[in-house]
């Protein structure tokens, strides 16, 4: 072979070996960027905003008669609020609590009863503003802060619904508000937010939901209670969640292990079957149906609602006829 041709051939091979890893890294970066920053319209944000507004409204209405008794300190409360906040302070002193608001109100000459009533009305007003889409950002921040204060000050009574509501309000607070269906956007004629920014916030919510269900399913699967039906039996017969008659549960005892296994499979398989286009509608229907059944059979209506809202905001808009982003819109958005 000609020495010149041999040298040229060697140079080409060397360049190919050097540029191949670089090209692979570039392709990997492009794929990661397309995954984390997909072009999305803001229908998911509308679902999240209105759903959380309804959740907070129902939360406040369900506690309206017991609000003072639940959050009052000293002898006026069901369980002393300062006791729950003392337990919380042993873990961290930076978590918001109603004691901060009460202390501020006392400096202004207000009594505890007036301050707690004011906090309830502020939470209701924040929920109404979110529902209408008025002052969305301020309402979301206020709702998140007050809801976190109430759940932390009543941590002895809190359960999963409060944690998931706080998670949803946190995402809403940071989301690119206002969405196009809010009164803020309609009155002020605001242009739509960056679609890649919308996609990034929705993608983070999607990944968070996948982690929640996957590890929840793994935790259920490692024990025997969900495989033989005893966990379902205890959940359905423990007051005040015993909505279904025990006689009916005894007659249907052979179905409980099957339902327990299905719950483990649905939750563990969530991150694997919710992403593909073909399996997403099926798994979405499974997970929504599971939470609706939980709400009906156990009386956990607020828990069922918040899980339906989070799942619908994360993976629902593409299934219920939301507008899909065309290639032309993607090109304009990337420009």
**How is the main sheet built?**
none
**Average pLDDT metric:** 85
Roughly how many Å apart are the termini? 49 Å
Give Rg in angstroms: 26 Å
Unreliable spans: 321-335
Structure write-up:
It is a single chain. By secondary structure, this protein is an all-alpha fold. The chain has helices at 3-36, 43-62, 67-71, 81-91, 98-107, 112-132, 136-153, 160-174, 183-188, 195-221, 225-228, 230-237, 246-251, 256-268, 270-273, 280-298, 301-315, 327-334. Mean pLDDT is 85; it is low at 321-335. The chain contains 18 helices and no strands. Helix 2 runs antiparallel to helix 6. The radius of gyration is 26 Å and the shape is globular. It starts with a helix and ends with a helix.
Can I get a quick summary?
Helices cover 73% and strands 0% of the residues.
Features:
335 residues; mainly alpha; 2 domains
Q: What is this structure's SSE topology?
A:
Elements: H1 3-36, H2 43-62, H3 67-71, H4 81-91, H5 98-107, H6 112-132, H7 136-153, H8 160-174, H9 183-188, H10 195-221, H11 225-228, H12 230-237, H13 246-251, H14 256-268, H15 270-273, H16 280-298, H17 301-315, H18 327-334
Helix pairs in contact: 2-6, 2-8, 2-17, 5-6, 6-7, 7-8, 8-17, 10-14, 10-17, 12-14, 16-17
């Amino acid at each position: 072979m000609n020495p010149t041709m041999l040298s040229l051939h060697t140079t080409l091979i060397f360049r190919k070996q050097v540029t191949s890893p670089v090209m692979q890294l570039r392709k990997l970066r492009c794929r990661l960027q397309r995954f984390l920053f997909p072009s999305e319209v803001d229908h998911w944000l509308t679902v999240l905003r209105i759903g959380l507004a309804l959740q907070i409204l129902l939360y406040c209405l369900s506690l309206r008669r017991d609000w003072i008794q639940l959050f009052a300190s000293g002898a006026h409360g069901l369980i002393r609020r300062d006791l729950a906040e003392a337990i919380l302070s042993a873990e961290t002193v930076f978590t918001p609590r109603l004691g901060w608001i009460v202390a501020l109100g006392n400096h202004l000459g207000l009594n505890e009863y007036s301050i707690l009533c004011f906090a309830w009305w502020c939470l209701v007003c924040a929920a109404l503003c979110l529902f209408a889409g008025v002052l969305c950002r301020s309402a979301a921040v206020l709702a998140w802060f007050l809801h976190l204060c109430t759940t932390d000050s009543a941590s002895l009574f809190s359960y999963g619904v409060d944690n998931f509501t706080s998670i949803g309000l946190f995402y809403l607070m940071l989301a690119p508000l206002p969405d196009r269906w809010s009164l803020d956007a309609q009155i002020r004629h605001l242009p739509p937010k960056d679609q890649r920014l919308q996609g990034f916030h929705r993608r983070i919510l999607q990944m968070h939901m996948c982690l929640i269900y996957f590890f929840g399913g793994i935790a259920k699967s490692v024990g025997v209670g969900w495989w033989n039906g005893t966990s379902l039996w205890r959940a359905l017969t423990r007051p005040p969640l015993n909505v279904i008659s025990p006689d009916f549960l005894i007659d249907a005892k052979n179905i409980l292990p099957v339902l327990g296994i299905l719950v483990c499979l649905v939750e563990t398989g969530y991150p694997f079957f919710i992403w593909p286009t073909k399996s997403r509608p099926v798994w979405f229907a499974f997970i929504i149906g599971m939470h609706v059944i939980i709400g009906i059979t156990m009386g956990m209506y607020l828990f069922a609602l918040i899980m339906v809202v989070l799942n619908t905001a994360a993976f629902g808009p593409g299934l219920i006829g939301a507008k899909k982003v065309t290639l032309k819109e993607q090109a304009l958005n990337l420009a």
